[in-house]
Amino acid sequence: MPYTYPHSCRTFFSVRAATHDGADIKFSKSEGELHCRGTTFNIHRDGQLYYLNSTSNSKTASHTLQEWHVILGHCNKADILKLQDKVDGMIISDKSDFDCEVCVLGKMTETRRREPDQTARKPLDVVHVELAGPVDPPNINGMKYSFV
Ligand SMILES: [Zn+2]
Predict the structure, then answer these.
(1) Of 26, 73, 122, 130, which one has the greatest count of Cβ atoms within 10 A?
(2) Which helix (H) or strand (E) holds 84?
(3) How far apart are CA 88 and CA 85, in angstroms?
């Protein structure tokens, strides 16, 4: 995660954090490159420090079908496969099928039992009413609820 020092106009970048997250970084005497998730960023040297250009120099992005699914907001697989031919630089490195837990959870519905819990067998056996209350102070008879 880049960090801007309060008195600096530059952003500091942690090589250790990037490599810990799977990035590959190569340094030469005057420049470098950072490869992360199919994207390459240039690193240039200014004095004794190296600086990371925040824009990618790569015109391609390579991800698995599952990664593209997440990047594109859980788009369906067939549309992602169609996009590869339409979008310049979009590479799907692994087209194997997968199950997305987020999509499965998002499509779950709650089913309700439609049979009534209790059935009336004679008049006034079951009464449904709407009550208002509790009312404070209670009425003259001490009742706190009334029928609506
Ligand atoms: Zn999904």
Answers:
(1) 26
(2) helix 77-86
(3) 8
CA of 67 to the centre of ligand 1 (A): 10
Count other Cβ atoms within 10 Å, centred on residue 25. Answer: 17
The string of pLDDT tens digits covering residues 115-126 is 777 788 999 888
Distance from the alpha carbon of residue 66 to the mean position of ligand 1, in angstroms: 8
Task: Calculate how far, in angstroms, residue 104's C-alpha sits from the geometric centre of ligand 1.
Answer: 7
Q: For the purposes of burial, counting CB atoms within 10 Å of the CB of 63, is it exposed (0-12), middle (13-18) or buried (19 or more)? A: buried
113 Cα to the center of ligand 1, angstroms: 29
Distance from the alpha carbon of residue 50 to the mean position of ligand 1, in angstroms: 38
Query: What digits encode the pLDDT tens for the residues 79-136?
Result: 999 998 888 888 899 999 999 999 999 888 877 777 777 788 999 888 888 888 898 9
